[in-house]
Amino acid sequence: MKKHVVLYKELSEPLMQRLEAQTHVTLIKRLDAQGLEQLRAALPHAHGLLGASLKLDARLLDLAPKLEAVASVSVGVDNYDIDYLSKRKIQLTNTPGVLTETTADTGFALIMATARRVVELAIKVRNGQWQKNIGPEWFGTDVHGKTLGIIGMGRIGEALAQRGHFGFGMPVIYHSNSPKPAVEARFNAQYRSLNDLLQEADFICLTLPLTAQTEGLIGAQAFALMRPESIFINIARGKVVDEAAMIQALQQGQIRAAGLDVFEREPLDANSPLLHMDNVVATPHIGSATVETREAMARCAVDNLLAALAGERPANPVN
Ligand SMILES: NC(=O)c1ccc[n+]([C@@H]2O[C@H](COP(=O)([O-])OP(=O)(O)OC[C@H]3O[C@@H](n4cnc5c(N)ncnc54)[C@H](O)[C@@H]3O)[C@@H](O)[C@H]2O)c1
Ligand SMILES: O=C(O)[C@H](O)CO
């Protein structure tokens, strides 16, 4: 008998066909109020779930007594109650690796955009404000040769270090759970305590997961250690940062600029002060959002789900 899978994310035709060949699929196209109702109605029959961007807590999981596997179309798993999934012996999987390079590209796009004021100045050109040769008031700051600070030296951190070291001649310093000698050898990188990194780096980039240990890690004290010429980049998770403290640091000139792909609450509130700051580049959580990478992530999630439902060990188990 075919098992029942609930999708809360649309898949490409080939992936949909693969999944439908082996399972009964219920597709919930949007997670709006109506979609959530459909999800609640489908959960009692579900053996497998596949999607992203849904807080899957015990309350929802309790509606799914037959659930065997959850395949997240993301590498980050902060949306899942992992302890409860494990207690229920439900296999959680994620999609590490396939999005690493694309997400590091996004990080570098934010580094370039903030340092060279790309968005702010492009808006001025569009608004007809470029009426004479530009002066220092429109100058940016160099990226090449500046110190790249990476907090969380995992897959994406390494891909960022590679771009900085080989592409832009940047000295790399990093802070992580533990020193990484192989990374140090490859990128001539140096380990720093968190506080030393915050004081020393020209670009401070977050590439660590949201966990109980990292929530609010970068708060007022951390921003106070940064320098007025520092640029802060977050491609990890919004809740690793105290957003109010970051806004204050930007308003008070404690840091030069911020490039932000992730926020405490997403979508970002249209009234956020961040949207009225010329020195902030805000993107809508596009870290992995290219056609190729999103397809690779979805394929990885389908592979993981089918393996788990077949009683095999999936390639990317989280628990
Ligand atoms: N913006 C996006 O769209 C996007 C895309 C992909 C990933 N992400 C985020 O990036 C995170 C990292 O992804 P990855 O594939 O590089 O993961 P990874 O596990 O390979 O790397 C994370 C690194 O952070 C380190 N770390 C964990 N806790 C730490 C702590 N308390 N202090 C210091 N270092 C700590 C780990 O040791 C590891 O080296 C994901 O968990 C996800 O939240 C965001
Ligand atoms: O964790 C991830 O994979 C990205 O944030 C996309 O959701």
Automatic annotation (TrEMBL):
Q: Which GO terms describe its cellular component?
A: cytosol
Keyword terms: NAD, Oxidoreductase
The record ties this protein, via InterPro entries, to: D-isomer_2-hydroxyacid_DH, D-isomer_2_OHA_DH_cat_dom, D-isomer_DH_CS1, D-isomer_DH_NAD-bd, NAD(P)-bd_dom_sf
Q: Which SUPFAM superfamilies match?
A: Formate/glycerate dehydrogenase catalytic domain-like, NAD(P)-binding Rossmann-fold domains
Q: What is its EC number?
A: 1.1.1.79, 1.1.1.81
Domain (D-isomer specific 2-hydroxyacid dehydrogenase catalytic): give its ranges.
5-319
Q: Which GO terms describe its molecular function?
A: glyoxylate reductase (NADPH) activity; hydroxypyruvate reductase (NADH) activity; hydroxypyruvate reductase (NADPH) activity; NAD binding
Q: Which domain of life is it from?
A: Bacteria
Domain D-isomer specific 2-hydroxyacid dehydrogenase NAD-binding spans what residues? 108-287
PROSITE patterns noted in UniProt = D_2_HYDROXYACID_DH_1
Q: What class of enzyme is it?
A: oxidoreductase
Q: Pfam families under this entry? A: 2-Hacid_dh, 2-Hacid_dh_C
Q: Which reactions does this protein catalyse? A: (R)-glycerate + NAD(+) = 3-hydroxypyruvate + NADH + H(+); glycolate + NADP(+) = glyoxylate + NADPH + H(+); (R)-glycerate + NADP(+) = 3-hydroxypyruvate + NADPH + H(+)
Q: Which family does it belong to?
A: Belongs to the D-isomer specific 2-hydroxyacid dehydrogenase family. GhrB subfamily.
Protein name, UniProt field: Glyoxylate/hydroxypyruvate reductase B
